[in-house]
Amino acid sequence: MTTMGTEQDSARVQLARTRVEEATRATRLAVIAATPQLRARALRRTRYLRIGLYAVAALVVVLLVATAVAAWQVRGHDREAELQRDVLASAREAITTMLTADPDRAGAYVDKVLAVSTGPQRERIEKARDVLMAEVAGQPGPSVGQVVSAGLVTDPESDDEGARAGVLVVADATNPVLLGGRPDDGGENPGADAVDTTAERLTATLTMERTGDGWKIAEARLS
Amino acid sequence: MTRARTDAPISVAAAAVRIAVAIVILAGALTAAGFAWRADRSAAQVEQSRASLHDAAGTVVAEVFSLDAARWRQDRARAREHVTGEFLENYGGQLERPPADGAVSIVWRPEAVAVVDAGAEEGQALIRAAVTVRSAAAAEPATTRRSVLARFVKVDDSWRLAAADVIG
């Protein structure tokens, strides 16, 4: 009885082993059969990922180029604004220089005025040097000038030497003759009027010109 | 050898790392591009505003201050269209009156317009104008020149006078 039971158990175990082996074989065969499809799917997904990454890389390149172009344009705008400020600052400084004179230092005054002038304005000052020195020396005291407001009539087209810009300036001056004439004589007779020590408001139109040494007055007209 | 590596499928972890890196780089590039685009647009707007202020300032001042006694109410109404509420608060009374001192007409003719400062929505201009006044008492009109420092504000894409000081 015991021997019979043992033989039956052994047969069941043997059958189970056989079934396991068959199942294992079947699984292996199935895996082997499916491997090309699984590999193909993995390759397909990898390919899609790679295409996506290439697309992102291309988009990043486009965005970087767009950023660079925009930054370059912003820099251009900033340069223009800086140029405009530079012209206005030079005009303010030049007008203040032209309207500020110490009678004890007439020669130094003319030199300073020449230093902020160029072109026709410089030629005019050089020709009128003696008249201007006499005008300053004849002042009862130092004259002063102060810019009230200044703006650009025409913007500077570039920062290259020879570039020009138009400036409208309103200033207070104790001796407006120094700017080339009294407001009511049109600037035709520099130094022809008597010194007026009362502060006077004057409006002038300037043509500023870029030289190797910064922006200088090329023309100044009282208006 | 290289071909085999290129053709090899990558693991899920490696793919996740690549996707995360790509997202970070793309987000950075988008942010940088956004900032640069906004800065460029803002600078371009300022430049356009500056040009439009230069073109409009003289005309606006002339429209506001020119006046004919025969049709002063219409002229004042036209002037009010070119000024801001701030201007009306400060100088509104002057835009309700006929020309003073027996003037028959006052004509402002801008001769030079200079931009002092300009932003996208606000700006300041210096205007040199010839002001011709015809009066009943004088046979000939009298012309003087005035420098006006004027502040403008952009309203509905057009410049309006917010303040004006005759400074010369």
How would you sum up this structure in a few lines?
Chain A has 223 residues and is α+β, with helices and mostly antiparallel strands.
Label this structure with key terms.
heterodimer, A: 223 residues, alpha+beta, four-stranded antiparallel sheet, 4 strands, 57% helix, 18% strand, B: 168 residues, five-stranded antiparallel sheet, 4 helices
Molecular structure report:
Chain A has 223 residues and is α+β, with helices and mostly antiparallel strands. In chain A, 57% of the residues lie in helices and 18% in strands. In chain A, α2 packs across α4. About 7% of the residues of chain A have low confidence. In chain B, α2 runs antiparallel to α3. With 168 residues, chain B is of the alpha+beta class. Helices cover 46% and strands 33% of the residues of chain B. In chain B, β2 and β3 form a beta hairpin. Chain B has a five-stranded antiparallel β-sheet with strand order 1-2-3-4-5. Chains A and B meet through α1, β1, β2 and β3 of A and α2, β2, β3 and β4 of B.
Beta strand count of chain B:
5
Kindly report how far apart the N and C termini of chain A lie: 137 Å
Strands of the largest sheet of chain B, in order across it? 1-2-3-4-5
Element-level helix/strand string of chain B:
HHEHHEEEE
**Helix share bin of chain A:** 55-70%
Mean pLDDT of chain B: 91
Question: Topology of this protein?
Answer:
The complex is a heterodimer of chains A (223) and B (168).
Chain A: H1 2-99, H2 106-115, H3 119-127, H4 129-137, E1 145-154, E2 164-173, E3 200-211, E4 214-222
Antiparallel strand pairs in A: 1-2, 2-3, 3-4
Helix pairs in contact in A: 2-4
Chain B: H1 2-7, H2 12-65, E1 67-68, H3 72-81, H4 85-91, E2 103-118, E3 122-135, E4 142-155, E5 158-166
Antiparallel strand pairs in B: 1-2, 2-3, 3-4, 4-5
